[in-house]
Amino acid sequence: MPMLKLPGLIDPHVHVREPGQTHKEDWDTATQAALAGGVTMILAMPNTKPPIFDAATLDLALDAAKSKARCDYGQFLGAGPDNADIAASLSGKSAGLKMYLDSTFGELRLDDMTLWGPHFINFPKSVPIVLHAESRTMAAGILFAALYDRPVHIAHISLKEEVLLIKAAKERGIKVTCEVCPHHLFLTADSPLPEGEGLGVRVNGRREVRPRLATQEDVEALWQNMDVIDCFATDHAPHTLEEKDSDNPPPGFPGLETLLPLLLTAVYNGRLTLDNIIQKSVVNPRKIFNLPEQPETWIEVDEGAEYEIRAVDQYSKCGWTPFEGWQVKGRVRRVVLRGREAYRDGKILVETGYGRNVRAEERT
Ligand SMILES: [Zn+2]
User: Fold this and answer.
1) H or E segment to which residue 261 belongs
2) pTM across the whole model
3) Rg (CA), the chain
4) How large a percentage of the chain has pLDDT more than 90?
5) H/E element holding 4?
6) For residue range 109-153, what is the model confidence (pLDDT) as tens digits?
7) Which residues contact 14 (CB under 8 A, 6 or more apart)?
8) How far away, in angstroms, is 304 Cα from ligand 1 center?
């Protein structure tokens, strides 16, 4: 059986949940899920408990990653109301700076726009500031990129108005890039999703995700403007089924293990090309985030293998997927990371601690 050989994928948007919420996921399970999905490098988001916003909390995340990660990684810093100097001084050890412009997360809250400026001024321009900024907030973020003449990367775009604005901003030479998540390409607000048992009329927490699932028109606009989209990112955001089916369901979907099979199925259906996947999951994220090459790293995929996505087969601790029961075509069979076989036919073959920090000063 001839195997399709692809470079190891880079996922620039992963919630590892460690420190603080390791019942949902941790550096070991998140990186196992990554490898099983053909992802050999992840960039971890900072809204953990505690959030990653200074030297002590960055060490907390990096120490856990160093001992537990099985694939390569970087860790984002979070922007808070008074850590612009500290964040800039730690930039070399971080994947970049994440600013939550819509949501509020304790220490990472940015209540008004006067708090954005110091970060835009101080954080080095060699890597973009990543913005969680939806709709009109996104427009404000792009204005800041223009005012301060520095790159910004818009996380998880989901709306027609967003992709069109980014297109217009790029045409004007504003330094903006963006990513889209598979769930915003393959699901709408009306898609049937698995439900918890006995939910009755209550809200189905398994639908909850931010940005919310959008309309068919939005989804079509993303597909039609695929050339505007720089990266695919999972926004892997695991919560347990118990939490998703509770009265107060937290938003977020797991995604590391379904990214590539969904994209390969789109290739099979003629909606994407393999080159789209390589550009948006390897070449562009490496360039945008200034990431090192991973030597002797590739994945092997059985293009013809059809199978059903099932949460029970996944390495993520969260125990569910919004794509349960989906038929996909294209299975990851083997992953080689820096010369070692890291995954083969359902088995993880590298130990915890094999993963390397992509911002570590000494790499061999
Ligand atoms: Zn996220």
Assistant:
1) helix 259-268
2) 0.96
3) 19
4) 91
5) strand 4-7
6) 898 999 999 999 999 999 889 999 999 999 999 999 999 999 999
7) 30, 34, 42, 43, 44, 45, 234, 235, 236, 256
8) 32
Residue 285 dihedral angles phi and psi, to the nearest 5°: -60, -35
What is the pLDDT of the chain when averaged over all its residues? 95
Cα 235 to ligand 1 centroid, rounded to whole Å: 5
Q: Please tell me the distance between residue 212's alpha carbon and the centre of ligand 1 in angstroms.
A: 12
Spatial contact of 108 and 53, defined as CB atoms under 8 Å apart = yes
Q: How far is the CA of 4 from the centre of ligand 1 (A)?
A: 30
Does 201 have pLDDT greater than 50? no
Q: Cβ contacts of residue 4 below 8 Å, gap of 6+?
A: 274, 300, 301, 302, 303, 330
Q: Is the pLDDT of residue 170 over 60?
A: yes
Backbone dihedral angles phi then psi of residue 176, each to the nearest 5 degrees: -125, 135
pLDDT in tens, 255-283: 999 999 999 999 999 999 999 999 999 99
Return the percent helix, strand and coil in the chain, to nearest 5: 35, 20, 45
- Output the CA 136–ligand 1 centroid distance in Å: 18
Q: How far is the CA of 200 from the centre of ligand 1 (A)?
A: 29
